Every structure is written in C-alpha cells, then in structure tokens.
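Can anyone check this?
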Amino acid sequence: MDFIYTEEQRMLADSLRRLVDQEWAFARRRARQAATALDPQAWASLAELGVLGLNIGQDYGGFGEVPASLLPVHVELGRGLVSEPVIPSAVMSAALVDAAGGPARERWLPRIASGEAILSVAYQEPGRRYDARPQDCRAAPQGGGWRLDGAKHLVWHGGAATAWLVSARAEDGETLLLAVPSDTAGVRITDTPTLDRARCARLDFDGAALPADALLARGEAAGQALAQALQWGTAALCAHAAGAMERLLEITADYLRTRKQFGQPLASFQALQHKLAEMLVAKELAMSMAYVAVAALTEPDPVQRRRMLASAKLEAARAGRQVAQMAVQLHGGMGMTDELEVGDFFKRLTVADLLLGDSAEQLATLAEEEARA
C-alpha cells in the first residue's frame, strides 16, 4: 500500500494545516467550543477550502475526489481538534444521500458542499447501543406523506443540523430512511455537550408530519445506504484520531524538551525517551490502520471491507488510549489541569473510541465475520 500523498493531496493538507493552525489555535478553539451554536465563519472557511465538497461529485457542486482524499483532510482536522460537523455532514450524510440516489442528490448534495446545509445521520435509539436497525422509531403513511414517531439519541451535531437523515421502521418491518428538516413540527431537540466539547442531540418525534418526498430509501437499499454512511464515517474518524495522536505526540515531545529536572531537560532521561518511543510506535500503527480504513472504502468484498474497518477502528481506539494516557503522565501534574490542551486531546481520543461503534462492538463484528468464514 502506498503511504505517500499525491501532489494534490499534499497541497490540500498544507493549506488545511495553515487554516487549522490559525483558526483552531488553543484559545480560539476553546472559545468556539464554549459556544452552543456553530460558528458560521469557521464553517464557511472549511467550505471555501473545499473540505465540505471534497468527495461529492462535480455534478453536485463538489470536487469528486476519491476516498483516499479523506486521509490528508481528516488527519489535519484531527491535529487541530476541529469539532465542527465535517464528518457527520460532509462525509456520512453525503455518502448516505449519494447511495440513496434519486432527487435527494439534487436537493441536498450541492447544499452540503457549499456549507449551506448541515445534515446529520440519526440512527441510534435509546437502549440499543450501536444497532443500526430501527426498532422503536416508526414511520407510517399519513395524508400522502409520512408520520414519524419515536426517538433517536446521540445524534452527532444534531442540534446544528439543517436536517436529519432518520432511520425508521415501517409498518411492514422494512427500514426507511427519511430526510427530516430541523424546523419540522412535532420534533423536540435536546442538545447537549459531549466529553470532548463537541455536541450531540436527542430527537423526540411526536407525530412529525413529512411530505412524500422525504423518503430517501427503503428496505435493502436503505440498509445499504446507512451502512455506507457508517463506513465512510468510520474511515474519516480513524484518520481524525491518527491526526490527534500525531499532534499530541509533538506537544508532549516539546514539553519534555522544555521542562527541566535536576538541571537537565526531561527529554534527556532515557526512561522518558522510551515512553516517547512507545507513543510514536502506537501513533504509527494507528496511522497505518487509518490507511487501511480508507482503502476499505474501495474494497469490493463486503466481508473484507467490514473486517478492515473494524480492525482499523479497534487499533485507533487502542493506540489512542495508549498515546493519550502516556501524554498525561509525561506532563506530570500539569497534565491533569484544564490549562493545557493535552487534556483536550485525551478527551477527543476517548470519545473517538465510543463513536460509530466502540471496541466491544468492533470485536463483535470481527468475531461475527470469523464465524461466517
């Protein structure tokens, strides 16, 4: 596997790093995360650079880049702990809409690419962990359209969304995918902060009325579209986590070179050098598996694709815990304070394990695929 960026990818990564270094520096990032509303200026800057339309087809206002382009973009966003809903909207929702096809592409993809619309996939239900099959969220025909009842929770950046892509169960048991605008009557939104200073929401639907064209897909097509969204999101999240580890390693190495003990920089002590080496190995493994995750998106065999993504997500979680915990330890008592950004990286890497299937879920996926073999 070729781990070298193309010239275009390198240029994009360099441009994005300059933007992130300027707009997502420690103080600015903290101030932005403290607000409950999305910063329109920050969101527009990502759209102007082409991040939001990167993998959307040129016919719909995007750039039509291959899945491999996820890697340089989301590594850089991870380095800056960018909390804006790039993965929920520009990656997962765009992949779902594209897979569903039909008029929804014309309606939503150009708006996602321009940043005008923010979409989020609402698929998790209370008490059902990561099961993507809808159970208690129901959709029934009503007046030529649809009536939606039930609840979705842990909707990633659901409070900032222009619309949600909701999975629901039909009366005949089929899975439906519905586009639900955020101003729809009969929807109660409970927006809450997460451990890493991002946002998630619970959506309660009480007889929410939707037009007929809200239906994006049903049955097997709906399941495949939702699976594609989750797979693209997983690959982007693995790259994001690898980028966060890379930057956290740099911050920790700089601290050890600066901080002195017994008149010597901490970096001169061999025991601490060994710790840095272990962090470096873990980061490199996570980065390598991020390449595997991105490569999985073009893998034609669905079984192998799921194995690759589950393995990559599992390694991102394991390496993230190791790098984050060692970083805190090497910073000593200061590593436990809110004054340093090392804690921000620790929290982001912790949450990355929980998003889109935690380690237990990935192990279950691997075990399931092994049993089928």
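Reply from J.R.: I decoded it. The longest helix spans residues 220-258.
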